[in-house]
Specification:
six-stranded parallel β-sheet; Rossmann fold; 39% helix; alpha/beta
């Protein structure tokens, strides 16, 4: 354990992705409670910074990977003449490891040997304790624990304003006033991780018949726009389409208004967790015990484990933790009936 009341200048390094920075927020805010006088600087990706702008007590330093080498030089210049007491290097990707080189710190705390990939070990001088079969968020909790933060139940104070919430409410319009809202955030970063449009439409119909208003959310990419259009074309019920119409902060506010969210392995599922909105997660390629919606892992519908066993002849516990399974059509193995059953279970359990 690295424990010191002298920590006055702490740097966090976690560039991406949306879900992971949401996990990291809970660790950062726990650190702030233990070291309230410490200055916190967070080196973060450009898109992720849009969500976390104005995070209380945190200076965000944006690393824009699209600028190539110039981004590293800008970072070097930004930190010229400065030396942090502590760098929490929370990402093992090669780009993040190179970024760590340009962050001056007395102590550079990184992952244990088992998780130190892509030259991670070359850019740290201390390690967190080894963990086995942990959720990504629990890995971040390991950093907090390593510097003396008592064990904690993750919680979040996300940086949104009343004005942003008002914009989101205006986008929801009469839907917000109608009562319960079922949000479908259907698109992951890769098409193979998405469920089928017609099946999303069946869930939308089921929710509508239970008295929910249905909203589809997502970004402006062609994949997300097309998937939303396919879902809407597959049903006659009214659906509010907000795909491409919200900023990340406005999306967070929409998710906060939701009663329930349905999503595959994608950032908005984790955003919903930060505002205490229950999530039904759909998983086939990655282990939901590692990357599922943290507070709602009992609400996951998955075919990951059966496919992992089929492809490797080993269980998740016997494989390297985080092993992914491959296949373009795995999500099609998740049936409508399974997800409807989970929907009904969650509605009853959460008393929605």
């Amino acid at each position: 354990m690295i424990q010191s009341t002298a920590f006055s200048d702490i740097c966090i390094l976690r560039l991406s992705a949306i879900g992971d920075v949401c996990h990291a927020v809970s660790a950062v805010q726990a650190i702030q409670k233990t070291y309230p006088s410490a200055k916190i600087t967070w080196v973060i990706g450009k898109v992720e910074a849009m969500l976390l702008a104005d995070l209380a007590g945190v200076e965000l330093v944006v690393f824009d990977k699209s600028r190539g080498r110039a981004a590293y030089q800008q970072l070097k210049q930004h930190f010229k003449g400065r030396k942090f007491d502590l760098l929490l290097h929370m990402q093992v990707a090669l780009r993040a490891n190179l970024v760590a080189h340009y962050i001056p710190a007395k102590v550079k705390l990184g992952f244990d040997w088992a998780r130190a990939k892509e030259l991670h070990s070359l850019f740290i001088n201390k390690r967190i304790a080894a963990q086995s079969q942990e959720h990504v968020l629990d890995g971040f909790k390991g950093f907090a624990k390593a510097i003396g933060v008592p064990d904690y139940q993750p919680s979040w104070q996300m940086p949104v304003t009343e004005d942003t919430q008002r914009i989101a409410d205006d986008l929801l319009g009469e839907t917000r006033l109608a009562g319960r809202i079922f949000v479908i955030s259907p698109a992951a970063s890769k098409e193979e991780r998405n469920w089928l449009a017609q099946r999303y439409a069946k869930l939308a119909e089921h929710a509508y018949l239970q008295g929910f208003s249905v909203v589809i959310t997502g970004g402006p990419t062609a994949l997300e726009v097309n998937l939303a259009e396919q879902i809407i074309a597959s049903t006659d019920i009214p659906i509010l389409n907000l795909v491409g119409k919200t900023s990340l902060k406005e999306l967070l506010c929409v998710l906060k208004r939701a009663s329930l969210v349905l999503a595959p392995d994608t950032g908005p599922a984790h955003m919903a967790v930060t505002v205490a909105t229950p999530v039904i997660g759909l998983y086939a390629h990655s282990n939901p015990a590692r990357t599922g919606p943290y507070l709602y892992q009992d609400y996951v519908v998955e075919v990951y484990h059966q496919n992992l066993l089929k492809q490797t002849a080993k269980t998740a516990e016997q494989n390297p933790w985080g092993t992914r399974v491959k296949g373009a059509d795995l999500m099609a193995q998740i049936s409508v009936d399974e997800v409807i059953a989970m929907f009904d279970f969650v509605v009853e359990k959460e008393q929605l």
